[in-house]
Amino acid sequence: KLGGYGIIRVLPICPPPNTTLIYPFMMLALWGIIMTSLIGLRQPDLKALIAYSSVGHMGLVISATLIQTHWGLSGAMLLMIAHGLTSSALFCLANMNYERTHSRALLLLQGAQIIFPLMAAWWIIASLTNMALPPTINFMGELLILTTLMNWCPLTIIITAIGTTLTAAYTLYMFLSTQHGKLPHGLSLPPMMTREHLLLALHMIPLILITMKPNLLF
Questions:
Q1: Which long-range contacts (CB under 8 A, 24 or more apart) does 5-9 make?
Q2: In the chain, is it the N or the C terminus that has fewer CB atoms within a 10 Å radius of its CB?
Q3: Per-residue pLDDT tens over the stretch 100-147
Q4: Are 203 and 209 in contact (CB under 8 A)?
Q5: pTM of the model
């Protein structure tokens, strides 16, 4: 997100989007969406999977920012703020699992829904926002970015469509791997504490409020 802010700050000295100088950076940003999503699909480490998810979403932000239109900058700003809260919530959930199992491997985290039904509710809310499900603010940001990219070059819809599909795939893979399946034996898991629910609520309440009134960010 700091990198996205830096790109917005240096836009006055960037080449216009209709020059050939911008094409290599656009290709790297769009290809990065596909690559990080594919790596996320094969990632056994929960924390690394969430980190690759952040990198993939920032590829959308960079490509929209380089086009230098009002819609592109608005979508990039929405997605940076929304994914900053969503990604942080996912990292908090991953750390809560790590504190209980002392492992980030998805194989040791499965079946948590049986013991922690409230944590499973937080997991599904964070996962749905990460997938940019309507009418979340993530969806609004991605919709503005996809529209901007398609107006700039219609062929980009192929890459962004593949990236969006892969994002949904590895997010579902992450959720199903941690919440469903057979619970490993020999684990002594303490229950969730009030401070953990408060921490996650402080991530999700701003997302819901921004979704209800997104023009505050415009």
A1: 5/80, 7/62, 7/65, 7/66, 8/65, 8/73, 8/76
A2: C
A3: 888 788 777 777 787 888 888 999 999 999 998 888 888 998 999 999
A4: no
A5: 0.88
pLDDT tens-digit series, residues 177-200: 888 877 665 566 777 888 989 999
DSSP 3-state of 153? coil
Q: Is the peptide bond before 135 cis (omega within 30 degrees of 0)?
A: yes
C-alpha span between 38 and 32 (Å, rounded)? 10
Residues 6+ apart with CB under 8 A from 130: 53, 83, 86, 87, 90, 138, 167, 171
**Helices 156-179 & 137-152, crossing angle to 10 degrees?**
150
What is the per-residue pLDDT for 103? 79
Amino acid, res. 151: N
d(CA 103, CA 203): 24
Helix H segments across 42-155? 46-67, 70-101, 106-109, 112-115, 117-130, 137-152
Distances (CA, A) of 135 to 14, 50, 140: 33, 22, 7
- Alpha-carbon torsion, ordered 80, 106, 168, 209, to 10 deg: -40
